[in-house]
């Protein structure tokens, strides 16, 4: 909720998309966005926390095996259901707005049929082709893991249909609840099964991978139960008289679903394909040390830490899109510019301290969270984290720019920018990975440059092509000044209390001190305006009043 406080809202009439018809659930757009963002945030934090004990248990090699499955798995999931989930949401929302409830149900049923077929085919592909994929990637041990995770593809496909249906009805609670349940089961089952099969690393990794299948089964069960009760309530709420609705046939609905989902799926393939290529490159090009172990260090502790701030920024991206969409549709250019500036400011406020914080305390943070790793692995992880810390800001800005462009109807530009950036990333990895002096550090370099390019292209498009005026002082310089004050605090700790900072208590103390200075500077420089003004905005949100600037 706090994220959305700083976006200007347009007063709007009470329509179906904001308030369901009498007798059914009342879901305002704001409440739905808050619920979905909160659920996603909790789920992602659980996922990030899960990797800490798992890494300590499996070690770098085990995490390398675990992570090597995901590029191909993500690619298969993208092919299976990502585009269809958004297509179902879009089509169901349109039907519900037109009070075509029967046709909305048919959209959902059509999606279930399509996604069931896609899920079965892609599950069989992983089940039967897992060994071949493992050989191509360069590690034969992955074949068993692909077989263990293959049933989850079908489960995720079916979950996508339910997710799109409920989101189309502006009911975000089922999605949020299923995400949290999924992560809780994955955490509990993953750690238990990994512990059960230790010290056999391959079997322990297999247990952690199979926990993903179990968690997706629970997510599907949650959706199915909610759908059952929702359908029963909806049936009771329907008027006794029959409607004159003549729903479209299933064939035409399936055709429409496919036409909407296809471009979304193609766009979603960019990052999974890039990650799959990365996983193959590291096993075949890295010359120094054990490639799987090195990849495990990068994709385990380093990637998990880099992803934590991005979770918070993801909430900004989710919140800004509808606010900008409303301003764009209404033709209110000053309002749209104000919302864009707020989004970029929040992105910088969250990402900048993480960049310099990780750069200053990279080794101490890695040691604090992954103390069971060997000393050489801890040092390498710390160096990789420090080198790639700037990618947090660029990835965050890239994600926010993508939401801004999508909010103004420019759907294909962010896909093009990310595609160009990923090509550059792959090219850099091909050049740098074979060099023994660089090897795994190529990931940190190429990832940073990839997202720097994507963010730069996005910002240039927004300012030049869409003629958005960015308040550089408020959006960039003030958050940077606050971050520099925090950085000075951390450096003072490192210089004058280096031995203390290297202890667990010292690391936590330094982080708290830096965070306190940063928060004080945010207030002192009035990054979000005066305290009274911010409090007024929060109070207005909590009491349901619309804030207008």
Please explain how this structure is put together.
- Helices cover 81% and strands 0% of the residues.
- It is mainly α.
- The chain has a domain at 270-470.
- It is globular, with a radius of gyration of 24 Å.
- It starts with 28 loop residues before the first helix and ends in a 7-residue tail after the last helix.
Instruction: State which percent range the strand residues make up.
Output: under 5%
Helix content: over 70%
Shape: globular
Rounded to the nearest angstrom, the distance between the terminal CA atoms is 18 Å
State the order of secondary-structure elements, H for helix, E for strand. Answer: HHHHHHHHHHHHHHHHHH
What class, by secondary structure content?
mainly alpha
User: Got a strand count?
Assistant: 0
Low-confidence stretches: 1-30, 541-549
What Rg is obtained from the alpha carbons, in whole angstroms?
24 Å
- Major sheet summary line: none
Chain-averaged pLDDT: 79
Write the layout of secondary structure elements.
Elements (H helix, E strand, L loop, with lengths): L28 H40 L1 H28 L3 H37 L4 H27 L4 H25 L3 H37 L12 H19 L1 H16 L5 H40 L2 H37 L5 H14 L1 H18 L4 H21 L8 H25 L6 H25 L1 H4 L2 H21 L6 H12 L7
Helix pairs in contact: 1-5, 1-6, 1-9, 2-3, 2-4, 2-7, 2-8, 3-4, 3-7, 4-6, 5-6, 8-9, 8-13, 9-10, 9-11, 9-12, 10-11, 10-12, 10-15, 10-17, 11-14, 12-13, 12-14, 13-14, 15-17
